[in-house]
Amino acid sequence: MNGRRDFIKAASTGVIAGMLPVSVVRLSHAAPENDFTFAYISDAHIQHIKGNQFVRNWDRGLIRAVAEANLLEPKPDFVMFGGDLAQLGSKPELDHGAEILSALKYKTHMVMGEHDYYLDLGEYWSDLYGDQYYSFDHKGVHFVVLNSILTYDDWTFNRWETPERRMSEMAGLDNPNGSPFMVGATQLNWLKKDLSKVKKDTPVVVFSHSPLQKIYKGWNFWTEDADDVQKLLGKFDKVNVIYGHVHQIQYNQIGRIAFTSVMSTAWPWPYPQSYAQAESHLPVLTVPMNRADPFDERDATGWQFVDVNTGRVDLSFNLYSNDNRKVAFNADKGHPEDVSYPQIEIAPQRHY
Amino acid sequence: MISRKTWTALALAALLPVSAAADEFTAADVERWQAQFDEVAAEGRSLWTDSALGTNGVVCAQCHPNAANTHPETYPKFQKQLGRVGQLWEMINWCIRNPLEGENLAADDPKMIALQAYAYKERRGVPLAPGKH
How far apart (Å, rounded) are the C-alpha atoms in residues A110 and A127? Predict the structure, then answer.
């Protein structure tokens, strides 16, 4: 099933699509009616200045992703948006982001990010997009969306004098006044019930904003109850978690669960190990992204094209000013790997 | 090889109090200097998260949590957007002008000194590597 040799490139997709940094691949042996792909855009951080002014740089990243996703051939079946549409969760930001996303020609599913949530605890976001956690089935794959950016009730409800203060305290990645993310008991119960209807050999794809693994607590590259979620997911043969939040390429394998992060359209984040005073648990599988040209405003940003034809997620990273990368599941090795750097042989991480 | 003379010197040194040196700094001096530095670095941290440094609400910490990926130990070094070898404060001004859409600070502006103090403090312990990318 190491099927990259079986992939064929769809060659004649037109001049415009040919210029795009997108991967147009299909599994040649899969039943054509079950072939599908989806696009993944995340972490736009639309930031309001005042009146009708927004931070231009972040706007441009999202506008570009939407325009490119619309030119994909073959067409993706849907688009995921991975959370943090807004920077400070305000109505103008969520509205402006929704307007940019509305240009997408595909069905769009949304994931909640902490920057969308902590002003009004997701109220306006839910007015726009509905449920904060849900599942759906598509062509034999079970998809689950979690709101993984909740935290301790005491922090959410009792700590801060105003909602604006609460939002700005959670918005600072390195802010020691922040609080670790979690899925929480209510959603864990829901997830357990939701998954009880799913067969063991059904491919499962889970979308969360924060990593459902513990990488670096200081920057909330972290989900407090990740091990509880992993326990529920670990019983399936093929489980994939795709998360945003980290604004960088990460991938990992814990048991049967393959993890892959996605990029931000707004700005990149350093890897935790670049903070000299901290200890990080970056998955050892990850070949870090490089900063090709940190002076370019689109450096180390981009979006993803996801192929799920093997029941595993193969992510093509469409990077605006860096070499594109592809992180695909290697069935022989049993974990995701960068297809350009497979020579780096590191045993998958089994614990945090 | 360590010579006999060096061994003797080391042996003598071992007999003396650890911090012995001529004209020693007083504890009060050291404490005051450290407190001055820490105060300026703390001011740098508040500027790091201060939306008033620019004009569009963007702050340094948004892209550089804990001043990571600023690499103060690599300056002076070639900067593509300057077209020459530059110093950290020039790069900070580039960030203020571009992502933050603000105005340059003078090299000796107390705010500029504070921003650098914070970035260096977060990077303490990393060996100097001038010119490195």
Answer: 12
For the whole model, what pTM was predicted?
0.87
Which superfamily does CATH assign the domain made up of A3-338 to? Metallo-dependent phosphatases (3.60.21.10)
d(Cα A68, Cα A45) in Å, to the nearest integer?
19
**The complex's ipTM?**
0.85
Domain count, chain B: 1
Give the DSSP letter string of A284-346: TT--PPP-S-TTSTTTT-EEEEEE-TTSS-EEEEEESSS--EEEEEETTTTEEEETT-TT---
Is the per-residue pLDDT at A283 higher than 90? no
Q: Which helix (H) or strand (E) holds A144?
A: strand A141-145
Q: Tell me, what's the pLDDT at A24?
A: 36
Helices (H), chain A: 15-19, 56-70, 91-101, 114-117, 123-129, 153, 163-171, 185-196, 226-233
Give tens-digit pLDDT for A122-135.
999 999 999 999 99
How many CB pairs lie under 8 A apart between chains A and B? 60
- Could you list the residue range(s) of the whole structural domain that residue B104 is in? 30-122
Domain assignments of chain A as residue spans, ordered by start: 3-338
Residues of A in contact with B64 (CB under 8 A): 270
The Cα of B124 is separated from the nearest Cα of chain A by a number of Å equal to 7
Contacts of A269 (CB under 8 A, 6+ apart): A173, A219, A246, A247, A248, B63, B65
**What pLDDT shows up at residue B19?**
60
pLDDT digits (tens, 9 = 90+) for A23-49: 333 434 345 667 789 999 999 999 999
Q: What is the CATH number of the domain that holds B64?
A: 1.10.760.10
Which of B68, B81, B125 is the closest to A270 by Cβ? Answer: B68
Cβ contacts of A293 on chain B, cutoff 8 Å? 80
| Residue B51 C-alpha, separation from nearest chain A C-alpha, in angstroms | 10
| CA–CA separation, A259 and B106 (whole Å) | 46
pLDDT at B5: 55
Q: Identify the H or E element spanning B9.
A: helix B4-15
Average pLDDT over residues A57-64: 96
Which chain B residue has the Cα nearest residue A169?
Answer: B49
For residue A86, give the nearest of A94, A76, A74, A77 by alpha carbon: A94
